[in-house]
Design a protein that fits this description.
membrane; elongated; MAPEG-like_dom_sf; transmembrane helix; mainly alpha; Membr-assoc_MAPEG; Four Helix Bundle (Hemerythrin (Met), subunit A); transmembrane; 138 residues
């Protein structure tokens, strides 16, 4: 491919992060307006209410495993290994991140969240394996 297609899933993940920041802000503002927490309590975030804590944790999670996703996408592009296989895996990873985030900020039920996380983990691992195979063959 070696166009810019591999960057669309990356940008879709960035959109997820911005959406989660917006959700965090909305949930925090709602709790401040309701008087359940003072604005100053967020200065040190010691007692984050559960309603916003799940979003905060979900956001933190977007800067863990996805860092490897960003690196892999860039390396795939540079190595010209960004073909349909890599692109499919990248979109699968991002779709699974959206599903994981949706579960995380709603029910936060580990029965559903954990398998979705594992599937994304495996999709990303497959991207790295694909890159290694591509480089070994080149």
């Amino acid at each position: 491919m070696t166009g810019y297609q591999i960057f669309w899933p990356l940008l879709a993940h960035v959109a997820l992060i911005y959406g989660l920041y917006a959700l965090l802000g909305l949930r925090r503002a709602k709790m401040i307006r309701a008087g359940s927490i003072a604005k100053s309590d967020y200065r040190e975030n010691r007692d984050e209410p559960a309603e916003s804590l799940v979003v905060k944790n979900c956001l933190a999670n977007q800067f863990e495993l996805p860092v490897l996703f960003y690196a892999c996408c860039i390396i795939l592009y540079v190595a010209e290994a960004d073909n349909i296989v890599a692109l499919g895996l990248a979109w699968a990873f991002v779709a699974l991140r959206y599903a994981h985030a949706a579960i995380h900020v709603t029910s936060n039920d580990l029965r559903y969240r954990s398998p979705i996380f594992a599937a994304g983990y495996l999709a990303l691992a497959a991207m790295w394996v694909w890159l290694a195979i591509w480089m070994a063959m080149g």
